Design the sequence.
């Protein structure tokens, strides 16, 4: 197999590319061209991402954009590349992985990297075909924008393009490409790669790049002094804190990632690589959303510990730079307090409580137990509770529990704490912390089924709701309702 290097591009829009990751040099990536797909068409677009990138008005809907963002044409000034990384998959060292189907087009002024996912084979594709299917591309596109709407750090998605070109999964499916956007797609696995290969110079180059670009504060005396002046320990500390914050947000909203391998962990604490993810329907703490995850390693309630395990791998990888094992362990230590504190802060917002911190935190565990015992729909519970506080009518919340007496007992304690709050402010906080709309599996599935039939309006509607998930969106109650019976039969695996 051969990979052609970029040739001079056709005349095209001149975007303000800057060097970014490409400046690291050829130890970090392979330059190559995306592999074209036949007869591309638009499937979905995010106007807010187009604005974020500062794209010229209308360009992201042009024929040139369609071809370029499907990988059929290289934009002037872009030097596409696939990066190399390694990682632990399902707790086991997997060796070299890398961008097997994602191709980085480059970085735009403003610091946004643009990457095509599903744009063809790379030297890191291993047995894969370098493609992504329409269904998984729709899920990634929608969830990126949904997470952003929820205020959760994530890679973004500019658009999806589809093609009649076929790819084989369990059956033949059509191919698609998602244009992803993030300040950086560097993963824990990038560091693990160079550490595992004893490439200390490259490891340092990568760490320096990440610090200078994304964590410059890690060089300040204030940040390095707890670590004997070591900026790499300060980096590890910052990454673990950001990851702890991210886990708190995932847990609070009921998001299951599904494949928290170290190669899917963002060095910036972003949600990255949407595969078999799921937003909880009923609150089942041990819920496993990935049908390929037979032992439930990545079950909902294990995510915070898995993130810590992954940070430990990152610490191991950074050890040649940190030099001292105790310092590396100490840099991870704050995860153990930052995560629970951040999670409690999230739960207090969801409860609309700003006073009496200890008493309000004491409400959380019993509530989660009640939700689990009664298999209460997680999103609907919080939204109904928000409305109940706003309107003083708790019956619709109570109706969600089989064990009403247990709920009444909890409500009594909650009401005592609510009495300390300004009711209107509490309700407002709750309605802006507890989304009405999340990307439930069945909603994604409906959009996918319609899109497979050539109708992208369902996707657009869902996108619009998820972009502003705390708004009421009158007339769209069905999207905020309980999942239908068939939702439980949806099986999402790593196949994508
Ligand atoms: P994921 O489970 O999607 O995070 O992917 C794990 C690794 O497999 C990464 O190196 C991906 O680039 C690679 N990969 C996944 N699917 C494909 C595919 N269809 N073709 C090539 N590489 C793939
Ligand atoms: Mg991945």
Sequence:
């Amino acid at each position: 197999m051969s990979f052609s290097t970029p040739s001079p591009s056709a005349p095209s829009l001149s975007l303000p590319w800057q060097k970014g990751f490409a400046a690291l040099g050829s130890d970090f990536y392979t330059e190559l061209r995306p592999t074209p797909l036949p007869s591309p068409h638009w499937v979905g677009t995010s106007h807010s991402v187009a604005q974020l990138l500062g794209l010229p008005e209308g360009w992201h809907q042009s024929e040139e954009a369609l071809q370029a963002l499907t990988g059929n044409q290289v934009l002037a000034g872009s030097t596409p590349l696939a990066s190399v990384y390694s990682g632990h998959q399902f707790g086991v060292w997997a060796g070299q992985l890398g961008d097997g189907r994602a191709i980085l087009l480059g970085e735009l002024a403003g610091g946004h990297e643009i990457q095509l996912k599903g744009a063809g084979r790379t030297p890191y594709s291993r047995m894969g075909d370098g493609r992504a299917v329409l269904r998984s591309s729709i899920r990634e596109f929608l969830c990126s924008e949904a997470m952003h709407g929820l205020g959760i750090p994530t890679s973004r998605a500019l658009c999806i393009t589809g093609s009649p070109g076929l790819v084989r999964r369990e059956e033949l499916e059509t191919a698609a490409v998602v244009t992803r956007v993030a300040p950086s797609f560097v993963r824990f696995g990038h560091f693990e790669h160079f550490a595992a290969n004893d490439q200390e110079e490259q490891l340092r180059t990568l760490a320096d790049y990440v610090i200078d670009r994304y964590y410059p504060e890690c060089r300040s005396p204030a940040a390095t002094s707890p670590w004997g002046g070591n900026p790499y320990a300060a980096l590890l500390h910052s990454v673990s804190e950001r990851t702890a914050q991210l886990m708190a947000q995932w847990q609070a909203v009921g998001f299951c990632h599904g494949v928290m391998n170290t190669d899917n962990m963002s060095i910036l604490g972003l949600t990255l690589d949407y595969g078999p993810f799921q937003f909880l329907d009923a609150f089942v703490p041990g819920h496993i959303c990935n049908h390929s995850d037979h032992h439930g390693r990545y079950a909902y309630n294990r995510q915070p510990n898995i993130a810590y395990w992954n940070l430990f791998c990152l610490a191991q990888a950074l050890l040649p730079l940190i030099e001292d094992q105790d310092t590396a362990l100490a840099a991870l230590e704050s995860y153990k307090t930052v995560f629970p504190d951040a999670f409690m802060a999230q739960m207090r917002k969801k409860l609309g409580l700003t006073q009496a911190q200890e008493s309000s935190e004491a409400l959380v565990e019993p509530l989660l137990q009640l939700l689990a015992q009664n298999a209460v729909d997680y999103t609907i519970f919080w939204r109904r509770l928000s409305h109940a506080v706003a309107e003083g009518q708790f019956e619709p919340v109570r109706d969600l529990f089989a064990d009403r007496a247990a709920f009444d007992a909890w409500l009594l304690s909650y009401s005592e704490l609510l009495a300390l709050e300004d009711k209107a402010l509490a309700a407002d906080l709750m309605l802006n912390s507890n989304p009405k709309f999340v990307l439930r599996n069945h909603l994604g599935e409906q959009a996918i089924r319609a899109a497979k039939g050539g109708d992208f309006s369902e996707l657009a509607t869902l996108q619009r709701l998820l972009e502003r998930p705390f708004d009421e969106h009158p007339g769209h109650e069905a999207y905020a309702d309980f999942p239908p019976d068939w939702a439980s039969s949806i099986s999402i695996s790593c196949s994508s």
About this structure: The first helix runs from residue 47 to 53. The chain has 17 helices and 13 strands. The first strand starts at residue 17 and ends at 18. Residues 97-101, 124-125, 128-131, 259, 263-264, 273, 275, 494 surround adenosine monophosphate (ligand 1) (CB under 6 Å).
